[in-house]
Design goal:
Blueprint (H helix, E strand, L loop, with lengths): L2 H18 L5 H5 L2 H10 L12 E3 L3 E4 L3 E6 L4 E9 L4 E11 L7 E5 L2 E3 L2 E3 L9 H4 E3 H4 L5 E3 L4 E8 L5 E10 L6 E2 L5 E8 L2 E8 L3 E9 L19 E7 L8 E6 L3 E9 L3 E9 L3 E10 L2 H9 L2 H7 L2
Parallel strand pairs: 1-3, 2-4, 13-15
Antiparallel strand pairs: 3-12, 4-11, 5-10, 5-12, 6-9, 6-11, 7-8, 14-21, 15-20, 16-19, 16-21, 17-18, 17-20
Helix pairs in contact: 1-3
Length: about 325
């Protein structure tokens, strides 16, 4: 099954499931990575003047890559809906409630989640996010107008909502906020380059590419070592290191470690990872300014066949 066909097929199944009312809670199981990125690819992108506000209706299952104002109005009970927001790597997401007409006492809700949840897995993982999981949910029915504007911690966020009464709904405005030191990122594309910098901060940062790719690391600066180690031995107790991960979910903590890099070097160093998701993850003790620069590109069919011949798919699925 080709990638393009598989993308559209999964998206069709998601929409069909939602329309028939047979989907379970989206947080648990119902949205695939392919389905989400088919929505991303279908998003209309165009140049807009600064004073023009892009407006369109919000769908029950939706992906938003643009700033603008979006309105959802239920034409029948909509019980399992989710909107996914994604910006560029250096952008955080701002969500503002303009108007809300829902029945909280009747079981309606609108919840913002700081990150993404796909098939029960979170990005960023609990190990990489500064807040505990329960604080990453912001429920409109609990906070009301106190939290009219919500800002994400990274370039992705999402909205869960349930509305029982036809005619009820809400309007939100999405804005992009520049983040000078982006930490956790989901890439919008299977090809690109990125430099991750953690300036004297004790934190973990993951750059996620939801495609099988080749990673080419051009430079790694950890501030205290000057050599390279790959795969074995593991970095052990090193407080500052980079790891390359592969898996078929979105939670880096559940993925397979392909390579550990705990010594500074000037590359290039290349690794091919044939899983559905590839992650470059930096762990920082806060004692140094740590930096890693890398490029990534989508593996072609020949590369993927070689990866399958080396039983790479086995560890991709064993990481789940």
């Amino acid at each position: 099954m080709s990638v393009a066909f598989r993308v559209h097929f999964y998206f069709f199944l998601i929409c069909l499931s939602a329309l028939r009312g047979e989907s379970r809670y989206l947080e648990d199981n119902e949205i695939s990575q392919d389905g989400i990125f088919s929505l991303l690819n279908s998003e209309i992108k165009r140049e807009l003047s600064e004073d023009f506000i892009y407006r369109r209706p919000l769908r029950c299952i939706d992906m938003l890559t643009m700033e603008g104002q979006f309105t959802f109005t239920a034409d029948h009970p909509q019980l399992h809906c989710a909107a996914f927001f994604i910006g560029e790597a250096q952008e955080n997401i701002g969500i503002e409630y303009n108007s809300v007409n829902i029945d909280c006492s009747g079981g309606d809700f609108i919840k913002v989640f700081d990150g993404w949840i796909l098939k029960g897995e979170k990005f960023p993982s609990s190990q990489d996010h500064p807040l505990p999981t329960y604080e990453r949910y912001i429920d409109y029915c609990e906070t009301g107008s106190i939290r009219r504007v919500i800002r994400s911690s990274q370039n992705v966020a999402m909205l869960f909502f349930r509305i029982h009464t036809p005619g009820n709904g809400f309007t939100i405005t999405i804005k992009k906020i520049i983040n000078p030191f982006p930490c956790n990122v989901i890439s919008q594309t299977p090809e690109g380059s990125f430099t991750m910098v953690i300036p004297h901060q004790h934190r973990n940062c993951s750059f996620s590419i939801i495609y099988p790719v080749q990673i080419k690391i051009a430079e790694l600066t950890l501030g205290h070592f000057n050599d390279l180690q790959v795969k074995k031995p593991r970095c052990g107790g090193a407080g500052d290191f980079v790891e390359l991960l592969g898996g078929n979910g979105v939670d880096p903590s559940k993925m397979f470690p392909v390579a550990d890099l705990c010594y500074s070097f000037s590359g290039p160093a290349e690794v091919k990872i044939g899983c559905d998701n590839t992650v470059v993850r930096m762990v920082s003790s806060g004692k140094f300014v740590n930096r890693v620069s890398f490029e990534y590109r989508l593996l072609d069919r020949r590369d993927l066949e070689k990866q399958k011949g080396n039983s790479v798919e086995d560890f991709c699925y064993s990481a789940e």
